[in-house]
Amino acid sequence: MATVQLSDIIDVTVFQDLPAVNSPEKTAFFQSGIVTRSALLDGLATSAGKTADLPFWNDIDPTVAPNLSNDNPASIAVPAKVAQGEQISRKAFLNKGLSATDLASELAMGPRAMEHIRARIDTYWMRQWQRRLIASTNGVLADNIAANSGDMVVSVASESIAGQSATTRFNRDAFTNAVYTMGDAATSLRAIGVHSAVMSQMVKNDDIVYIPDSMGQLTIPTYMGLRVIVDDGHTVTAGSTDGFKYTSVLYGEGAFGYGDGAPINPVEVEREASQGNGAGVETIWTRKTWILHPFGYQNTGTPAAVSFSIAELGLAATWARVVERKNMPMAFLVTN
Question: How much is the pLDDT for 109?
């Protein structure tokens, strides 16, 4: 009896050309507008090197008054200039292998084997993309507290359960204060990311408004016009006495840039004839090269490997702000 193998099921060329079943573009983060993918970032992710330089133009200094015109030919005006800033992003070179030993037996039973394995792998990569985005957000928060006196953070949380009240939990006044850490740039906000415990409080406050999705169903939660993204990856810390503090993140439009690179072999099936005591084992490998970078920050320090791990992305030492606070489209609210 012939043994069904992954190489019998999967046409690698077709596999890598199929659109992803679950891709980052289908996440609430992407659909809310807080992540922007561009051909420029795709190109930088594809190009050689471990890092990518992401230049941006600094604004014209509004504190410098314009010249006062006169009719004196000898009065020569000196033009000002605009300068570029630079964000340095370290690319993420990632791969994942799935063994054929159990998977082939599972997939061979149905007529849609390739679609099923595609869905499993795409879901994994989508979740990893989200985890890396949230970890980067946590790193930005840590750096802001360490290096910029927490000018992006409003905290009303109590350090103990006994001290908790309506004013230390998620509430509109605290939310408004966090919004306006951005000054007059607050109008760029598009979404708020919260832990499910905070979402529970928002629902109890009767603050959530559901709007229709593209199918006309009331399924998208919003708060004060912002899309609500619920993910338990958002920061939770223990109070110094007891209880917990939850960090909600306010995201502005284009808070993150995203580029998808092109690994030399994005999909590959590997066979090891000697494994399984000679029975043979097959593994499918998928590879990703990503740029997923918060606007206004650059990567600092050196990762333990070629790319930053999720744990490293959450560290203050990995990030440094290179723009004024109001130009950084992110704010943080800490509540019980």
Answer: 53
